[in-house]
């Protein structure tokens, strides 16, 4: 990649600003000052230093967002605030949410521009687990829990794949439970709970694959994935 393009992608400055920086001799490649903006660098192997700092090039960005209710899972929307509006405008190019949460659903959302990883996480054949914390009203019988666990008819051509159900609390007609599913059908959790005799009053995604929502994140805020989180996610 051209040196000026490399520095621009790292947001050191605009293309014309980085050209000036390079021409001044402030950028070193493998210990030598390089004054030609068109100089070709090997971004994976060359050591590039600017202002005394070694620059490192990350091809893709990965953010964990704690999606609040009221925000739509889209890259653009004419009426509503989108999940991308919660990231800084210079967070990266081509970012998109991996999978979809309803407008009123909260919780874990991965935002990246790594299309290959997103494709793998969403591929139906991969059966990546998604865990939701849900508060429900209504009556969910033991028999209905068994149907959720076996695969329940939600009005589609085929029943859902078996889910894991953990009842956290149960009062007369109020439940809190964790539901782990491996598909991503439209309004899937709400429809599964409805088919089981309940009604979701609150829904929050707490995990996707190996990634769990960071309990220190405030609603509406985000952080970059750690190296460890990324490695584990890529191994799925
Ligand atoms: N299932 C739903 O019903 N809604 C979501 O947002 C995610 C899963």
List the keywords.
binds uracil; 236 residues; four-stranded antiparallel sheet; alpha+beta; 6 helices
Set down the secondary structure blueprint.
Layout: H1 3-9, H2 15-23, E1 27-29, E2 32-33, E3 48-50, E4 53-54, E5 62-67, E6 96-97, E7 106-112, H3 115-122, E8 130-138, H4 142-150, E9 164-170, E10 174-181, H5 188-195, E11 198-208, E12 211-212, E13 222-224, H6 227-235
The chain binds uracil (URA).
Uracil binds next to α5.
How does this structure look, described?
This protein is α+β, with helices and mostly antiparallel strands. It is built from six helices and 13 strands. The protein has helices at residues 3-9, 15-23, 115-122, 142-150, 188-195, 227-235, and strands at residues 27-29, 32-33, 48-50, 53-54, 62-67, 96-97, 106-112, 130-138, 164-170, 174-181, 198-208, 211-212, 222-224. The strands form two sheets. Strands 5, 6, 7, 8, 9, 10, 11, 12 and 13 form a nine-stranded mixed sheet that branches. It has a four-stranded antiparallel sheet with strand order 2-1-3-4, with no helix packed on it. Helix 1 (3-9) packs across helix 2. The chain is elongated, with a radius of gyration of 23 Å. The structure holds uracil. The site of uracil has 8 residues, from helix 5.
């Amino acid at each position: 990649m051209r040196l000026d393009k490399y520095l621009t992608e790292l947001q050191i400055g605009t293309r014309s600003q980085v050209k000036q920086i390079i021409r001044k001799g402030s950028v070193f490649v493998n210990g030598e000052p390089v004054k030609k903006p068109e100089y070709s660098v090997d971004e994976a192997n060359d050591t590039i230093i600017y202002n005394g700092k070694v620059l490192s090039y990350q091809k893709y960005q990965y953010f964990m967002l704690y999606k609040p209710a009221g925000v739509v899972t889209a890259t653009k929307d004419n009426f509503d605030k989108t999940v991308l509006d919660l990231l800084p405008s210079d967070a990266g190019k081509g970012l998109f949410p991996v999978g979809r949460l309803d407008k009123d659903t909260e919780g874990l959302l991965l935002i990246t521009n790594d299309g290959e990883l997103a494709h793998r996480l969403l591929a139906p054949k991969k059966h990546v687990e998604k865990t939701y914390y849900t508060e429900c009203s209504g009556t969910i019988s033991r028999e209905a829990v068994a149907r959720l666990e076996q695969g329940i008819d939600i009005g589609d051509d085929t029943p859902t794949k078996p889910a894991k159900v953990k009842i956290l609390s149960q009062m007369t007609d109020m439940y809190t439970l964790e539901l782990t599913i491996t598909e991503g059908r439209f309004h899937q959790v709400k429809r599964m709970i409805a088919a089981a005799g309940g009604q979701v009053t609150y829904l929050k995604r707490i995990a996707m694959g190996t990634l769990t929502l960071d309990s220190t994140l405030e609603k509406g805020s985000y952080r970059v994935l750690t190296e460890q989180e990324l490695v584990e996610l890529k191994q799925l």
